[in-house]
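>> received
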Amino acid sequence: MSTQNPVFIPGPTNIPDRLRYAMSIQTTDHRAPDFVELLTPVLDDVKKVFKTTTGQIITFPSSGTGGWEAAITNTLSPGDKVLVARYGMFSHRWIDMCQRHYLDVEIVDCEWGTGAPADIFAERLSADKNHEIKAVLVTHNETATGVKSDIAAVRSAMDVSDHPAMLYVDCVSSLGSMDFRMDEWGVDLAVSGSQKGFMLATGMAIVGVSEKAMKATETAKCPRCFFDFRDMAGANAKGGFPYTPPLQLIYGLRESLKMIEEEGLENVFARHYRLAEGVRQAVRAWGLQLCAKTPDLYSDSVSAIYVPQGFDSDVLTNHAFDTYGVSFGVGLGEMAGKAFRIGHLGSLTDVMALSGLTAIEMSMADLNYPVKLGSGTIAAQEYYRKTAAVPQQQAA
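>> returned
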């Protein structure tokens, strides 16, 4: 019965029944003439979530990590220099991937809990008079620390430096949950996936590719085959795939986009902020501290929370699972044993969020945390009550 409980990890997220049903279809022929009627409108509609009119959407049967690899291998060559900051586990993993592809990685090490250092990027880019840096890589939402970076500020730093480097952004855990503006922010490669804001099963990497990035595929020398933009774009233009597509996920994505459109994209962002702020109110009431150093860095899709000195966050998340059948995110990297994470993205309501807060609060009480039972839940309840939408019939 515990499988009926929602998960509170930062992805994969809870899947609405409507999307489970949409993905539960019989196999059809992806080489039949009518496949184009499914694929082409989906790729066009995804652009609205990326907020791009000039970019191209390319998908692969993969997780978001495959999207990272596709972004790198299609646009860069071994020996190319890239600039990237390390401020969490996922920015670190992108660094590792670049190094494995024999790129020259210039790393800016930052304190975990901070975001992308636009000012340092500006300095490094301004000093690069020969334009050896080919790309700047940024993790928009660092899932390990619950930190959201300012992509507009990074773009501004690049523009002030008058540097031609491309901008790559990992928006896996932000797209469809927080505002993302591919065209306005001048993002050349935006990497996402099916399992977070789109509320689907894992299995589809979704990449927004600018015209500049697509042109870079002509000279890039990193090996690629399965993840070749040119093969995928060429097949998509004819309404097909270069190999077997994740058909059920494409049907699911079509329905997910309908759900997002029905709610309204800006309303989706507002809902995520409201859910996240309720969680943050609970954290304050518990007397605990977020990993994110300042409010401007707070993520609206995941909160990473330090446990008090002398406690082990892994023991807490294991207890919540074993005792109450609820999953929370464990601490990753430098946060291991020190912090737990509450995912509040995708298919989630305030009532569901409250159930998660209650479960983790009970777990802390069971383990003798210096937390008053009910304190965080009440704080979140008060916030959700104050910010609840008033039904039209009552408003009249």
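>> The CA atoms of residues 80 and 103 lie 5 Å apart.
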